[in-house]
Amino acid sequence: MERLSDPVGGPAARAPRKRNRRFHARRLAVPLLTAAIVLSVHPACAQTLQDLSGLSIEDLADIEITSVSKRAEPLGQAAASVFVITSDEIRRSGAVSLAEVLRLAPNLEVARVNSQDYTISARGMNSVNAANKLLVLIDGRSVYTPFFSSVFWDQQHVMLTDVDRIEVISGPGGTLWGANAMNGVVNVITKSATLTQAGIVDAKVGDFVQSGDARWGGKIGDSGSYRVYALAFGEGDTRLDGGSSAMDAYHGNQAGFRTDQTAFAGNLTLQGDAYENRVGTPSGRRNGGDALARWDKRFADASTFQVQAYYDQQDRKDVALSGGGSSDRVRTVDLQAEHSFKLGTIHQIVWGLGYRTWSDEFINTANIARLVPQSQTLNLANIFAQDTIALRDGLKLTLGAKYEHNTFSGSAIMPSARLGWQSSPKDFLWAAISRAVRPPSRVERDLMAPGIVDVSPDFQSEKLIAYEAGWRTQLTPRASTSISLYYNDYTDLRTTSPAPTTIFPVTFGNGLEGHTYGLDAWASWNLFPWWRLDPGVSLLRKDFHLKPGQADIAGTQTVLGHDPGHQAFLRSYMQLPHDVELYVGLRQIGGLEEVSVPSYFEADVRIGWHVSRNVEVSLAGMNLVHAYHAEANEPPLHEIPRSAYLGVRWTF
After folding, report:
1. Nearest to residue 186, comparing CAs of 143, 128, 124, 125?
2. Cα gap 114→124, rounded to integer Å
3. So what's the pLDDT on residue 17?
4. How much helix, strand and coil, in percent to the nearest 5, is found in the chain?
5. 165 with 261: CB under 8 angstroms?
6. How far apart are CA 152 and CA 81, in angstroms?
7. Could you tell me the pTM of the whole model?
8. What is the Cα–Cα distance from 185 to 155, expressed in whole angstroms?
9. CB–CB of 187/167 below 8 Å?
């Protein structure tokens, strides 16, 4: 079923646009690829540096993360499949949006639908209708919408220069994170204002993308810091399958601030953002903003306490070509508190509680579909506790559970058990079993189209029990790898159930069950101090069936998504003479046979030159192998163009 708040109505037939704007991208594609190959095969020209970003393989394993246990722990000792995208990798990749940055994580599926939309998931179930099992956080603020339990990626923009790291967990995180953390968690963490005191201007001009960012940081008295930023961007048109322009270009702007200071005997963070985006066909507007406050304190006994509150608002409006339109208005208030402490010598406990309320109003005048009631207030309350037990040196058992209650489907319990074993200084083994649920969205409960779809008051949460195991090892002083295996057992997945005798109106039911299994693996290899290779691969298989006596007239793909059976990646980071750096990103993605999207291979290349300590210029080409390629088919099929841009970054 089509996502209702997306632009309604298909584009009318149009004459193809002039192709002059693609001319330069085609001309630059071969030179960029050639330069990448030539520079790669002349290592004798490269200067010797400590390494690419000041981090050795050992240092990378010691990066502190917080998403797995809600406390700081080394990446190399986290009992989960977690990949960290660093600030340096973001800059070197040349990615211009948060969604494009997430392509750097080999344990995610990222598919661009058109100029504005992406579908992003972990371990399968990736499509506009199915990508609803990934929790996305930006500085502790959940950005998924209760409208259809997914993320509007065209509304999620951050100043990438100020991102400290992105922690990507593939696998359930329900015990700590709750709602929607079913197949994975993406946690975007920006830098403290104390680390962004300089000014910066970053501009990129190309044939498909244009962007400009500016930030200024300063001091607040003797105990605090602040930064303010503004950004603007534009994305060009994709191409329809027949060769005509999709006329789906969009542009937007955003501004915000962050302060970090000592207050009330602890640390206080205040931050906020406001944005407005406009889309092409059909015409539409997305605007909104957020404000967040977080206070935390570390006590003398190493225990910590944190309390956080945020407000978020999102407004989406679309006008159909044939008249009418749709709008969705969401207001979110969230409160949460956490306490972490040691009990004796072997227990590390973290517990907390939270409450969230959404106020959602959906209006549709483009067709007969609507939500009943038009406005709805949803509440979500939870309490959780987790204990990490040091069984002996190098062996830890983590037990936890979350109790959650939501307006639609009532109570749910999400327990987990994780075992981590540092079997040797170089090897870490882990295994986990956990339960997660996805509460119903408004579409699944409240959708009505008279005579076609009826409201579904009996639709319940989708459920998952996940079994995982993994191994991390430092193969040599210059090489490390991570391998994770998983088996996901799903029950009560969504079906579109016909009426017993008349077929219509249909309702949403929980008649599908089955399993997925697969592998996530990646490595990092410093061939030389100036050259690092990061290969990665993911494999996925699915086996689902209807429960006895159940039927699904919409087809199981509406909930199972369209997933490649394999993905393979190779990232190359090189530091060359004369302060030149080269990034080459290769990806080979399996085909989506059920929607006629073929397998594809693509390459991204960025060459950067630090002209001086404060000025960097860059030339980047994206999707250089093909003039156009498709990554998803949410009718009509859109093809993503080859593109290039020139960038300049000035710090002061």
Report:
1. 143
2. 20
3. 41
4. 10, 55, 30
5. no
6. 25
7. 0.93
8. 18
9. yes
> Residue 401 and residue 626: Cα distance in Å, rounded?
48
d(C-alpha 292, C-alpha 279), whole Å: 27
CA–CA dist 28, 31 (Å, integer): 5
For 597, which DSSP code? B
- Whether residue 432 contacts residue 417, with contact meaning beta carbons closer than 8 Å, is answered with yes
CA–CA separation, 581 vs 238, rounded Å? 30
**How far apart (Å, rounded) are the C-alpha atoms in residues 530 and 47?**
7
Continuous H helices in 527-625: 557-560
Whose CA is closest to 372, among 451, 457, 439? 457
- Please state, in angstroms and rounded to a whole number, the distance separating the CA atoms of residues 278 and 260: 32
How far is the C-alpha of 2 from the C-alpha of 554, rounded, in Å? 11
For residue 572, list its beta bridge partners: 533, 584
Q: Does residue 456 contact residue 507 with C-beta atoms inside 8 Å?
A: yes
Q: What angle do CA 246, 632, 459 make, to 5 degrees?
A: 115
Omega cis (within 30) before 636: yes
DSSP track, 13-74: P-PPPPSHHHHHHHHHHHHHHHHHHHHHT-GGGPPP-S-SSS--HHHHHT-EE-TTTSS-EE
pLDDT in tens, 371-423: 999 999 999 999 999 999 999 999 999 999 999 999 999 999 999 999 999 99
Average pLDDT over residues 239-249: 92
Alpha-carbon span 354 to 338, nearest angstrom: 9
Q: Which secondary structure element, helix H or strand E, spans residue 499, and what is its range? A: strand 479-499
Mean pLDDT of 467-481: 96
Q: What's the burial of 449, exposed, middle or buried (CB within 10 Å: 0-12/13-18/19+)?
A: middle
Q: Which residue has the tokens 């209760």?
A: 146
> What are the two backbone dihedrals, phi and then psi, of residue 35, each rounded to the nearest 5 degrees?
-60, -40
Question: Which residue matches tokens 């860059």?
Answer: 618
How far is Cα 106 from Cα 483, in angstroms, rounded to an integer? Answer: 11
Stated as kind and residue range, the H or E segment containing 648 is strand 643-651
pLDDT in tens, 330-373: 999 999 999 999 999 999 999 999 999 999 999 999 899 999 99
Task: Give the SS3 label for residue 645.
Answer: strand
Alpha carbons 248 and 238: distance in angstroms, whole number: 7
Residue 351 CA to residue 337 CA, distance in Å, equals: 9
Of 551, 557, 558, 610, the residue nearest 582 (C-alpha): 610
